[in-house]
Design a protein that fits this description.
Layout: E1 14-16, H1 26-30, E2 35-37, E3 56-59, E4 63-70, E5 73-79, E6 85-91, E7 104-108, E8 111-116, E9 121-126, H2 127-131, E10 140-144, E11 150-159, E12 162-169, E13 173-179, E14 184-190, H3 203-206, E15 210-215, E16 218-226, E17 231-238, E18 241-249, E19 255-263, E20 266-273, E21 278-286, E22 290-299, E23 307-314, E24 319-329, E25 331-334, E26 340-346, E27 352-358
Parallel strand pairs: 1-20, 2-24
Antiparallel strand pairs: 3-4, 4-5, 5-6, 7-8, 8-9, 9-10, 11-12, 12-13, 13-14, 15-16, 16-17, 17-18, 19-20, 21-22, 22-23, 23-24, 25-26, 26-27
Length: 361
């Protein structure tokens, strides 16, 4: 299951370069009671010729969805058991049955939910229709939301009419619970730079983008990690309230906020990393039992945006294990039962590949 992860490019005249703390963060490594090296297993299928540039991976135990925009479509669908290529879906555009090119999404309940931070639309695809060969099956538009002062980087669908967003709300809080009718029921958790006068309403959202992951079979649970940080929150929705299950903060992002004269009376804004800021969290995925986080403390200027380190937490926020992969990965996905971990990797020739590891219990 997972990710809703996305970078909000949107607010006009904003520029993004991103940036966590510089030196090796020993604290986050020391909290894990066990460590284990994982061995990659050989899997059939997942033909690299069917894949372009992998932006997101997600798995529900039956389907593996790859976000790799090409040929006018957003996603590639594989059968997990055989690695067989099923087809492509997510026609790009603004017309009926089409979605925005920069959508991200996640699998849950035999559906794939897609979310666009730019146009603020939420769609749902039926996986049964897609597997039946109706690759161009039109998605259901769940909502187009217009919540003032909400800049969402990730989103969880709690029900067809209730959503929890992560990012910034009113430049002050990290999470917002709202309805299809744009009624805000709750907001929670102050952002780390709420009272930092170096940031404004434009640069605070840039410095609070992150990766979200929903618990399989429980859309009211969300984990959210800030990019270029060692910070992650685990939250749940109870009735009309957001509850903070656990705050795992081991290192804030280290950004510098700047205003840039664009000429012609226009001003641009950027949130840029301090020198030698660490990469931090790269990706999240989740099983019913816990959260897997791809993490790197390599300085951003030296990194290829990949890592071999996967940190595993249970949904109560307890650190469980530190896994080491055989090869660098830049995205990860796990099946709902936590049996197999799928990775997006690069070959020596630069091709994007899908790898697989067994997760021992």
């Amino acid at each position: 299951m997972r990710k809703i992860v996305y970078l909000i490019f949107c607010v006009e005249c904003m520029l993004l370069l991103s940036g966590c703390h510089a030196d090796k963060n020993q604290e986050i490594w020391n909290v894990f009671p066990s460590s284990q090296s994982l061995v990659r297993r050989t899997v059939a299928g997942f033909d690299k010729d069917s894949i372009a540039v992998i932006e997101v991976l997600d798995c529900d135990g039956e389907n593996l969805v790859v976000m790799d925009l090409h040929a006018g479509m957003c996603y590639t669908l594989f059968d997990v058991a055989t690695g067989r290529y099923v087809g492509r879906f997510g026609a790009l555009g603004q017309g009926p049955g089409e979605i925005d090119g920069m959508c991200v999404g996640y699998l849950s309940g035999r559906c794939f939910t897609a979310f666009s931070p730019q146009t603020r639309r939420i769609w749902r695809y039926s996986m049964d229709s897609l597997r039946a060969g109706r690759a161009n099956a039109s998605p259901l538009l769940l909502a187009t939301y217009e919540v003032p002062e909400l800049e969402a980087s990730a989103l969880a669908v709690c029900s067809d009419s209730l959503f929890m967003a992560a990012g910034t709300y009113r430049s002050a809080q990290q999470y917002c619970l709202f309805t299809r009718e744009n009624s805000v029921w709750d907001s929670a958790v102050d952002i780390y730079n709420k009272d930092d006068d170096a940031f404004n309403a434009y640069t605070r959202p840039l410095a609070n983008q992150g990766i979200g992951v929903v618990r399989p079979g429980a859309g009211h649970y969300l984990a959210y990690a800030l990019l270029f940080s060692a910070n992650m929150d685990i939250l749940s929705v109870n009735g009309n309230r957001i509850s903070l299950v656990k705050s795992l903060h081991y290192g804030d992002p280290d950004f510098e906020s700047q205003a840039i004269d664009m000429g012609g009376g226009m001003t641009g804004y950027s949130a840029t990393p301090a020198r030698r800021s660490a990469v931090g969290y790269l990706d999240l995925c989740a099983s019913r039992q816990g959260i897997y986080a791809l993490y790197s403390d390599v300085p951003f200027e030296e990194s290829r945006r990949s890592s071999r380190d996967v940190l595993y937490f249970d949904w109560a926020g307890n650190p469980v294990a530190h896994y080491t992969l055989e090869a660098d990965a830049f995205h990860i996905a796990v099946d709902p039962e936590g049996r197999s971990l799928y990775t997006a990797e690069r070959s020596e020739a630069g091709e994007h590949l899908i790898g697989c590891y067994n997760l021992s219990k």
